[in-house]
Amino acid sequence: MRRYPVLAALGVLAAAMLFPFVIVTFNAFKTPAEYSSGQPLSPPHGLNLDGIITFWTRVDFGEKLWNSFMISGSVAVLAVVLSVLNAYALGIGRVRGRLSILVVFLVANTLPQEALVYPLYYLAKEAGLYDSKLAIIIIFTVIQAAFGTYLLSAVLGQFPREILEAARMDGAGRFTALWRIVVPISRPTLSVLVIFFFIWTWNEFFLPLIFLISNDNQTVPVALGVLQGEREMDATTSSASALLGIVPAVAFFLIFQRTLTRGVTVGAIK
Amino acid sequence: MIKLRCAAALAAGALALAACGSGAQEQPSASPGQPRTLKLWHYESADGAMGKAWDAAIKKFESTHPGVTVKFEAKGFEQIQKTASMVLNSDQAPDIMEYNKGNATAGLLSKQGLLTDLSEEAGKRGWDKLLSASLATTAKYDDRGIMGSGKWYGVPNYGEYVMVYYNKEMFEKNGVTVPTTFEEFTAALDKFAKAGITPISNAGAEYPAQQIFYQLALSKASRAWIDSYELYKGKVDFHGPEFTYAADTLADWVKKGYIAKNSAGIKAEDMAVAFMAGKFPIMVSGSWWYGRLQTQLKKFDWGTFLWPGNQFAPGSSGNIWVVPEKSANKDLAYDFIDITMSKEIQNLLGNSGGVPVAADPAAITDAKSKELIDNFNKLTSQDALAFYPDWPAPGYYDVLVAGVQSLINGSKPPAKVLDEIAQPYNDNLADLGN
After folding, report:
1. Do B87 and A227 touch (CB under 8 A)?
2. Which residues in chain B have their CB less than 8 angstroms from residue A209's CB?
3. Are B28 and B37 spatial neighbours (Cβ–Cβ below 8 Å)?
4. C-alpha distances in angstroms, B259 versus A32, B111, B186, B206, B243?
5. Are residues B349 and B303 in the same domain?
6. Predicted confidence (pLDDT) at residue B215 exceeds the cutoff of 90
């Protein structure tokens, strides 16, 4: 009997969450004239794909998808590798001053990106990496790894010592212990991190906007910004682009849904 | 499962390597005989008037410059706003780009030495003669980066101005004719209000409301007052007749129901959509809506007129072409600007719903476009473009939005609102050392 109020509340919440998506979907399929003469909230009269096609060809969306995928994929993997190496030294190796190192990582994590823009811009320019995807991959690998290190150090700090002892008895070196013991055992945590890093990097807007100047380097969120004019707003094409922009994220979520939900529980170490 | 994950990791690693390889960019070469590339950026929509005209200009440029290809990239307004100074300071700068006119944008970049001085070209190619005084204001910047005098740093291709859009059907149904004097205009507003219709579609959360406020101030203003206010050529009294009249009248119009009280929270897009849906007979806004109304508004017949009784109207040149100092192909960039100023391209801009600055009026065939351009030419021939109220100080846009919102809400008396908008203006003057 107690289930129904909860279900009703969840239903209301889901409706509230889905409402903006419904509006976007409605307007994505309207003609501009239909949008202007009617209510933004009314459903479209027919399926008009012009908005989506215009947007796709205008920004060469396939290329943007590939760019986003390449950048987010590289960052996710590299950042996790870097985090594991750092966390192995901090959490299991227990290097001296690890607490202060972690505090530095945490502070670096809370820095607003706006504060980083100019230093990063000059560094990238000096290194000849301005306007290249590599610059964004390096920057986000470091930014994400700062968080990853912080999180993984805490997880590995709790790593059962006995297993490592046993491994050492069997003649495993430090690297073997990391690769054969620590990584396989913490794999659930690591795969969650990969997915988080991928989604976070995918959604990044500000730094890619600054660093990816050429259109052929741009990512999906930056490409969505192309439609915003100074005064005019093309509501139907914007809706179409928003729809195209969220589809990959939703697809990604559906594919990795199981890993993500498992990730919620790995924080609680048995 | 494990194998699959390893494969995924390898694939991602390979991606990272692929990304490394594509970092390098070929540099444009300036030696003669070599194929050259003109890197061009703008942020106008492809099917708008400027988009169409500039597309034609690119084709014409390529046909008159064999061996040169134009590498055009469509940019977003925000990206250019946020990154221009960084891009122009690097070797990734384009050879020519569209940029925002104004002290805080083009003025600032010119002060930083990032833009090429176009004075010589403007004289040699006659751009200075094609552009009337109030249009050239936004093309010239002095050493402090303040517009109105000094060297040419940009060339505008199009203009914009604020007018009154009206719904012909609603006018007819309520027995209202197009007003020619301010008295007739208020009488018309009154007639609608008495009939239970709020006459003006307004948006207090964005620029439209402050442009109505500015129109009212302009009805009492002289060119000297505008130059004082916009170009710091004299002192502006915020409690003088111009602004006092504007603030009092706007507050009064809300009381009389000419402007809806709830319009304080409405955005420009919604204002235009409400007008297009036939909910209001009048919309006071800029020429930037014109093309959209032409193509999308089929529901009723509409027309425009200049704010009745005013000599001046808010308006200016549009955004400008600038040539970055680091451009490797300045000669090509000048040629391209010259093509965009040619009659052919200017006429196309006019026939596509834009406001050309140097078109041949006889070549504008579309009746609606002709009305738009005739009104604009009337303004420029009288030197009557009064710029926009938010130009004088950085961040002044938000000050005016807040001020005019309090007038619409009636939350503050007009005199107090004027004090509030005077403060940041005078602070900015002090910063400039005036």
Report:
1. no
2. 78-79, 82-83
3. yes
4. 27, 42, 12, 15, 18
5. no
6. yes
Instruction: Indicate whether B193 belongs to any domain.
Output: yes
What residues of A are in contact with residue B25 (Cβ under 8 Å)? 131, 214
- B253 shares its domain with B312: yes
**Residues B216 and B300 reside in one and the same domain:** yes
Q: Residue B57 domain-assigned? A: yes
Reported as a single tens digit per residue, the pLDDT across A94-134 is 788 888 988 888 888 888 888 889 999 999 999 999 999 99
pLDDT, tens digit, 9 for 90 and up, residues B389-427: 998 888 899 999 999 999 999 999 999 999 999 999 999
d(CA B80, CA B120): 26
* Number of domains within chain A: 1
- Tell me the β-bridge partners of B303: B166
Best A226, A233, A237, A255 member to test B by mutation, with max B CBs in 10 Å, is A226
Residue B231's domain spans which residues? 160-316+386-432
Pick from A141, A135, A154: which is nearest to A77 by CA? A141
pTM of the model: 0.82
| Residue B17 falls inside a structural domain | no
Q: Are residue B189 and residue B301 in the same domain, yes or no? A: yes
Rounded to a whole number of angstroms, the distance from the CA of B120 to the nearest CA of chain A is 30
In a domain, A211, yes or no: yes
Same domain? B192 vs B126 = no
At A83, which CATH number?
1.10.3720.10
Residues A228-235 have a mean pLDDT of: 69
> For residues B147 and B316, is the Cβ–Cβ distance under 8 A?
no
**Residue pair B357/B157 in contact by the 8 Å Cβ criterion:** yes
3-class secondary-structure state, position B96: strand
The answer on B352 and B233 residing in a single domain is no
User: In A, residues 83-102, which contact B (CB 8 Å cutoff)?
Assistant: none
Residue B273 distance to chain A (closest CA, Å)? 5
- The enclosing domain of B275 has a CATH number of 3.40.190.10
> What's B154's DSSP letter?
-
For residue B305, what are the β-bridge partners?
Answer: B164
Confidence of residue A232 (pLDDT cuts 50, 70, 90): low
Residue B4 lies inside a defined structural domain of this protein: no
> Which letter does DSSP use for residue B361 in this model?
G
Residues B120 and B241 in one domain: no
CA nearest B4: which of A186, A17, A191, A139?
A191
Query: Number of helices (H) and strands (E), helices first, in chain A?
Result: 15, 0
Helix (H, G, I), strand (E, B) or coil at B71: strand
Look at residue A50 and tell me if it is in a domain.
no
Of residues A226, A230, A233, nearest to B269 (C-beta): A233
Query: Which range of residues forms the domain containing residue A250?
Result: 69-222+246-266
SS3 A185: helix
For residue range B338-395, what is the model confidence (pLDDT) as tens digits? 999 999 999 999 998 899 999 888 899 888 899 999 999 999 988 899 999 998 888 8
Q: How many domains does chain B have?
A: 2
Interchain contact A226–B (C-beta under 8 A): yes
Answer yes or no: do B209 and B239 share one domain.
Answer: yes
